[in-house]
User: What shape does this take?
Amino acid sequence: MSHLSRTELVDFIEASPQMPAERAHHASTCNECRAEADALRSIRALAITDEVPEPSPLFWDHFPARVAAAIGEEPPGRSRGADAPAGIRWLRAPLMTWAAAATMAVLMIITVVWRTTLHAPAPVRGPEVATTSTGSGTAAPSAVTPVSDDTDVDADEAWAVVRAAAQDLRWDEVHAAGLSARPGAAEGLALELTADERSVLARLLDKELEKGKRAKG
Amino acid sequence: MGRPDWKVSVTRDRTDAARPAAQALDVGTTTDDLTLVDACRAGRRDAFDLIVQRHQRQVYQLCYRFVGNHEDASDLAQDAFIRAYRGLHSFKGDSAFSTWLYRVAVNVCLNRVGSRAPRLTALEIADRPDLRVERADTMLLRRERSAEVRAAIARLPRKQRAALILRVYHELPHEAIAEIVGSSVGAVKANFFHALANLRKFLRAQS
Assistant: This one.
């Protein structure tokens, strides 16, 4: 028969009724188990003899008043987070904690997706779709000349329309119209657009130019 | 027109009349813990005073076992009662109030002993001897042994210490200890076994 386990030894030295009879019999006949049990009993008996020093009788008289003073005027059963710093106290409520965690997770996902989309390489398209139907002005998005994700806007074919449109504009007219920009702001804004967004912007500007030419003609 | 002959007398505060709990609360056995808890929840601050009076000794002794000195033990006991007061709403009455209070106190103690080393009371000032009933040499030997035992207990891991203190000094059943420390009965027994084994090892090393 195997020796007593740790929990069985505890049951044995405490004469627990949960101890099966055959295991108790083994413990009383096995020298090894008995020695182990005796050692545990003796150390428990030694520990029991230690008593907590009794504090001054005045301590017991004053202690409830001390607790009452520490509690002050706060109502009983205050919320669990009441002893937390004011700034994070609301976080101690379980519902608020889960809501905060969910919000943080959603924000992180949005950030990751946004940044991934922003810096994703432009979709590579075959030469068969690289034709521009600027004449009709109703080109489908798939027929628009693909825009490279290159940050060199001057070399970008799609921005040729914007550059052409900007050539006819005079700075004082733009300024008089209430438009002002920091140096490089337009470039910075354009660089933050995705490839698809640039294509759409180019198409819209293309349409506007066509309208202007028709009006002049 | 003469003034009406009204007699106004105030017998007691209106807030006292509105209090739902019994007007006369006593620490005696007639008022159980649940009645005091209900009275406390209803706004009777004095009911909590009675709870403190009733349980202060057990909570203090529990805290003393964890930290080994009066100053820290009294601070921990106060902290335990403050936390119990603030958490009264979470007491559902599924277990005895004393068990719930022990749980609060053990958590306070475990948090404290986890963050700092125990500062044991010096042998010279602990437990003033009563020379009328004990010989000086016997008393000295007993106190030395007590100090060794406390030092050995202070070296135990937290869960083992909790199991040993609650079982040996507060004589709680393993089931109640499991409820207090939030683990299984088997784990409590295993911790108790290891606590005794480690205690023996530490005391052997000391001697």
